[in-house]
Recover the amino acids of this structure.
């Protein structure tokens, strides 16, 4: 079935976007709406960097980001996913700000600002929303709480750090591990353009080193990274090698709904 175009009379087409994420719940700006939209987006729109490996340039303009997700039935990297989601939320009447974040490094420390985009949504309370980080929180987190926030058997917390930064941490076993740090300074989409170019062109970027596509499922996650298919379900993990390019294309179609030939520019 063809979806209506993502743009209608110069505005984001809410109906088309909601159909893309299979969302039929409430749309008034509320905590419930935000929570349900956030989960629906994560379950339908994958994190993927395939355009990096297809020679296609990511342009940080809202209409292009939304069109890729809605019309082309694709996913994207954080700038695309959170940039488009912010546009949807604004069109529904939410107060949304784009925030700059640096992802935690395995060896310690954090990547530079604008390495990642996350979102702040202001309702009666402020919420952290993020549909572009891959395996992380499913529902928005209370931004001004420093308590442990538990969801789906996972625990997260926000920690105050130096220079007005906050650090998002996730508990793994008995250890709290940082995911990224950020400030509450709002930015326009264009502010992320330089780091977006870096992740498309630098051999040091993880996005140029390996193609990845990953989607949350009701009970876990499914990921294709390189030529390996990884499925987690209720804590159980299975992996298998995709032997040919044809198998890889078939996995994208079956598990993520991505038809690369259909989205050729």
């Amino acid at each position: 079935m063809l979806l209506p175009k993502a743009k209608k009379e110069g505005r984001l087409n809410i109906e088309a976007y909601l159909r893309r994420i299979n969302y039929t719940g409430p749309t008034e700006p509320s905590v419930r709406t935000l929570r349900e939209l956030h989960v629906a987006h994560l379950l339908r729109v994958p994190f993927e960097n395939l355009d990096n490996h297809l020679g296609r340039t990511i342009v940080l303009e809202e209409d292009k980001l939304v069109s890729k997700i809605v019309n082309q039935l694709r996913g994207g990297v954080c700038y695309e996913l959170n940039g488009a989601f912010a546009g949807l939320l604004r069109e529904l009447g939410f107060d949304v700000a784009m925030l700059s974040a640096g992802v935690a490094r395995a060896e310690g420390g954090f990547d530079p600002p604008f390495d990642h985009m996350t979102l702040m949504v202001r309702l009666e309370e402020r919420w952290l929303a993020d549909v572009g980080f891959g395996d992380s929180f499913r529902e928005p987190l209370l931004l001004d709480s420093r308590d442990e926030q538990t969801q789906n058997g996972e625990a997260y917390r926000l920690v105050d750090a130096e220079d007005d930064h906050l650090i998002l941490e996730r508990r793994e076993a008995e250890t709290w591990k940082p995911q990224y740090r950020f400030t509450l300074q709002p930015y326009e989409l264009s502010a992320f353009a330089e780091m977006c170019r870096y992740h498309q062109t630098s051999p040091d970027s993880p996005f140029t080193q390996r193609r990845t596509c990953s989607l949350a499922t009701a009970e876990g996650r499914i990921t294709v990274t390189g030529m390996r298919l990884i499925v987690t379900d209720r804590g159980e993990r299975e992996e298998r090698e995709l032997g040919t390019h044809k198998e890889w294309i078939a996995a994208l179609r079956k598990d993520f709904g991505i038809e690369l030939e259909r989205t050729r520019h």
Summary: The CA atoms of residues 78 and 132 lie 4 Å apart. The helical segments are 14-20, 31-44, 62-70, 78-91, 193-201, 206-209, 245-256.
